[in-house]
């Protein structure tokens, strides 16, 4: 039998240590390629690389996604194994390893959906810190702009700005203020006048069951004030009455 | 190899105070995928920005089929591998317009198809590629224990004029194997081997690597001073004997 090519050696190596990370999946053809006293010795040697592959990349993901790792707790290793199988690293720098963790979590049906949003936030933090440096405009810059130039001016964001759209309160999950579960009586948000002041203070929330949007009146029952009894509803009625009066004048 | 942020700023500051060298881990010089042009382009930008005294990477492979292991994986020591790796080093040197240094890695397995000892392989690649050698004395020791060769024979097989830098580090053990972890002080046998290396290669820029569980600065400094002391002792002794 001719000696395997360099490519063949490396393909077998990869198959034995990285295709099924964290699992014993050493290719018999690779064991024969390794020097050792016996097969146990050969497999121990290959195992050093297999263990190192999984542990090193798990640590990288754990550092890049500390809150996702903390919330997954015992299940983090299993998620990492699945992720490395689905998205092996394709860049020379390990910095890019976690680029698709959010996508991977979104596809899974057995982990909480909010973790995909949280992973997106944690990944954005990395991208923001590594973004190209840029000079921010200063007061002096503004002062030096002639008045006639102002109408045509537009703001542009520095490259480190990232805007995320999340369906879950990921900032609270990230800061550790909230866990994955909401218990009866827990405050889920505060109302106040922070936006455009056309309606009274109110809170938007959504109840999902198995990721399906449901009618909160049905799911939460007596915990919820019926829509007709809310201040918003009273406000809408008042506005309608005022409009009618206005039309009558 | 990132666009901006703190690490580059820190490197800028360091560069103002002292010369820097660039030491890579991802060149995949022993791989069979084509060399990554995007990586080389970024490396070239970094070289232009920081004007390093030299550029080095590892004599190993780390990716196959476009997938990266982020590890320094061992090559089989064959004629095919010598030709393959040397041609790629030449390609990189032509691309960067400078000679690079290749570091010997520590390993936990060797291949039944290898036809030469590691030091013959390292020397043959360096000769054929006309590159420098970054000699990691700890890696020699770790591999010598793991594979049962003589570290002194290794040293005497390395061409004197090609060694551009020496690395020292600590390691840990796992069962019968030594693992290159860079998280311990340099152990006595590695200091002893370093003494032999200085005897053979003379005054060579030396770096103590410590990447994990980093101790207080004074301890790091003491390790570096130890290396200076050994170098001084060896070089003074040899000048007296002349």
What does this protein look like?
The complex is a heterodimer of chains A (249) and B (242). Chain A is an all-alpha fold. Chain A contains 11 helices and 2 strands. In chain A, strand 1 (207-209) and strand 2 form a beta hairpin. In chain A, strands 1-2 form a two-stranded antiparallel sheet. Chain B is built from 8 helices and 10 strands. Chain B has helices at residues 6-17, 37-50, 79-96, 118-129, 137-147, 151-156, 188-201, 217-241, and strands spanning 22-23, 55-58, 61-64, 67-73, 101-103, 132-136, 163-169, 172-174, 177-179, 206-209. The N and C termini of chain B lie far apart (48 Å). The chains are: A mainly alpha (249), B alpha/beta (242). At the A-B interface, helix 1 and helix 3 of A face helix 1, strand 3, strand 4 and helix 3 of B.
Concise description?
The complex is a heterodimer of chains A (249) and B (242). Chain A is built from 11 helices and 2 strands, in the order αααααααααββαα. With 249 residues, chain A is mostly helical.
For this structure, the quaternary state is heterodimer
Strand-pairing-aware structural class of chain A: mainly alpha
| Spatial gap, N to C terminus of chain A | 101 Å
Determine the mean pLDDT of chain B: 95
Strand content of chain A: under 5%
Order of helices and strands of chain B: HEHEEEHEHEHHEEEHEH
Cα distance spanning the termini of chain B? 48 Å
Q: Helicity range of the residues of chain B?
A: 40-55%
E-strand count of chain A: 2
Summed over residues and divided by their number, the pLDDT of chain A gives a mean of 88
Unreliable segments of 5+ consecutive residues of chain A: none
The DSSP helix count of chain A reads: 11
Dominant shape of chain A: elongated
| Poorly predicted segments of chain B | none
Order of helices and strands of chain A: HHHHHHHHHEEHH
